[in-house]
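Hi X.,

You mentioned you wanted examples for the new student's onboarding notes, showing what a folding record looks like when two proteins sit in one file. Here is a clean example. The first protein comes first, with its sequence line followed by its C-alpha cells.
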Amino acid sequence: MRIYLGVDAGASKTFALAASASGRVIGFGQAGCGNHQSAGLEPALHEIAAACRQALGKQRASYASFCLAGADLPPDFAMLRPAVEALDIAATIDLRNDAWAAMRAGTTRHWGAVVICGSGINAAVRAPDGREFILPSLGALSGDWGGGSDIATACLGAVARAWDGRAPATALTDLVLRQFNEPHYEALIESLYTERIPRHATKVVVPLVFQAALDGDQVAQAIIVQAGSEIGHTAGSLLARLGLQCEPYEVVTGGSVFKGVGPLLLDAATLALHRQAPRAGFTRAVIEPVVGALLLAIELHRQPIAPLMWACLRATLPKQLVIRIP
C-alpha cells in the first residue's frame, strides 16, 4: 500500500501525518522541538522520529515531505538530508523549510506565497511552473524586520524615547511597566540591562502593542503599521521576483503576530501588498501546516489532489489539525 507522510517540525512541536493513496488518514503523531538550531541535531531528530513512528506505526512511508524549521541555507540541508534519510522513515523523502508546509495548508492550489510572523519573519513563493524562492530568514543578518522580536524591540525603544523626551508620550509606558512589575522606567532599563528580565521574555509586550494601537495610541499604531507594511512589501517583492505580481495569488499568513487584536496590521499589509501586486490577497489557513506537508508529499510524487481524495482527507483529519473548515 502506498503511504504518504507529511512532517512539520518547529521550535515548539513536531507533527507528523500519514495517509493512504486514497487520502484516508492512517495515523497522526506529535512530539517536541524538531528544530536543530534550537535543540541540536540529535535531540531534534529524536523528536521527528518519535512523531513519525506514532503516525506510521510499524509501516514505512512510500514518500515523505519533511518541512523543517531551521532548514534555511545549503549547510543546513547538507547536514539534515543524510540525517533524515538515516531515520529510514520513507523510501523517498523531500526536505524543505517549514514555511512551505504553512503555504500549502492555506492555498487552494499547489502554488502561492506565504508570510510567517512569529518571533521572526519568513516568506516564500512558489510559481505554477515549479519555480520557488524563500527568504534566508536570518533576522537582521538577512535584512529581516517585522517579527515579534522586532515589534517588542520597537515597543521598548518607544518607551525609552518617551521617557527621555525624544518622542511623544505613549500608553505603552504604563502597560510595559505593569507587565514587568517595575515602578518606573529607570528600574525597567536596569532590569533589561542586567538581564534580570531576559531578552527572550520581552516578547510578552507584543500583545500590549496591538491592544494600545486598538485603543488609539498613535505610537503603538505606528509600530503595527510599520510591521504590516513590511509584511505586505515582503510578499509583494517575492511575487515580483518571480514575475507574478500581476497574478491573483493567495498569500497565506501564519505565526503568532497575526493573532494580534485589531485590523491595523492586516490593513497595512494589504495596502503594501496591493501597491506591488494588486490582484494578490492575504488568506488564513484552515488546517494546520502538517496537512500542507502531507499535500506536498502527495503532489511532489506527481499525484494530483483529486476532489475525492481531498474529501476523504478532510473527513478523516484529527480534530486538532482543523483550525476552521468553511
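Then the second protein repeats the pattern, sequence line and then C-alpha cells:
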Amino acid sequence: MRVGIDSFTISELNLNPYEIIDYVTDNGFEGFQFDLIGQMSETLDHGELKKIKKYGDDKGIYTHVTITSVNPVLFEGGIDALELRLEKEIEAAAEAGWHELRCVINKESERYTHRVPWSVHIDGAIQLINRLRSVLERYGSRINLETHLESTYELLHVISCTGSHLTGICLDTANTLAAAEDPVLAAKRVAPYTHLTHAKDAIVCFSKEGKGIVRQGKPVGQGNVDFETILPILSEYSPDLPLSIEDHKWLWTADIFDEDWMKRNPDITPYELGQFVKIAWNTQERLWAGEIPPIDEYEATPFADEMEDRLFASRDYLFALLDKLNLH
C-alpha cells in the first residue's frame, strides 16, 4: 500500500499538476489523485496529459485522475452528450496511462435534495456505464465510483448490473459514516471491488438538533475510522492500493432519527445501525469528558490554517500503521 493525497486537500494552494507532483514528492508522499480529466474535458490535450503522467512516473509516484460524473440526470446535455464526453475522457486518460478512474454519481447532496428520485439517478448511471462498455473494454479501463454519499449497498448494486471489470469503488473511509454505515462493515462489503481510496477520518456524535448524528472531519488516526482493522481487509484484495488522503472541514449529518431519511436508506440493517450508534455514543462520552475538543470550537479554526499540520499528521500515522501491519 502507498500513501498519497487527493489534490482537493491542498486546493487552497492553487498548484498546477506539475507543482502538485513536486509538492507530493517534496513532502514524503507516494502519489496523488486529482480532478484533471474533468477539468480539461473541453480541450483534453492528450500531449499535455501524457507529459503530466510521465512527470509523475519519473518522480516514482502514483497518479490517478477523476472523470466527469456518470449521472445523466445532473448533466445538462442529456445522456447521449454525456456518453460522448465520457468516451473522450476515458480515451484521453487511457492514452496517458490512466485506467483506474475515479468518478461519482452524487456530486453534492442530490441524493437527499434533488427533485428526481435518487433511484432514477442510480438507474441512469447503470445505463450509462453499460453504454460505455465497449470503450472501457477497449482500453482496459474501469470507472471507480466513490462513496460520495452513495451508500456501499447502492454501489454494489451498480457493480452487479454492469460488471466488476467496468465498475469498481473508490472507498472514502469516512463518507461511510455520513451514510450511517459502520466503516469496518462497509470496507468488508466493498473490499473485493476497491481500487482507489480517499483515506479520510472523522468523528460522529449526536446532533444538537436531535435528528441524528453529525460527522466532523479529523486527521487520519484521530477519528472513528478503524484503519488498523480496515487496511488488512482492503490489502487482501489490493496489496498495492493507493491511500490518497483527503481532508477538509465541514459538518455533515446522518438524520437517523428522521423517518424520511431512514426511508431513503432502506439497506441499513438493525445490526449495522446499532454499531453506528455505538460509535457515536462512545465519541459523545469522550466529548463530555473533555477528551475531544467541542464540535463548534474545533470547526471554528479555518482549515487553511491547519491544512499542512493535519495532512502531515495523517501521512505519519498511515506510514507508521502500514509498517506495524507489514503492509508497506
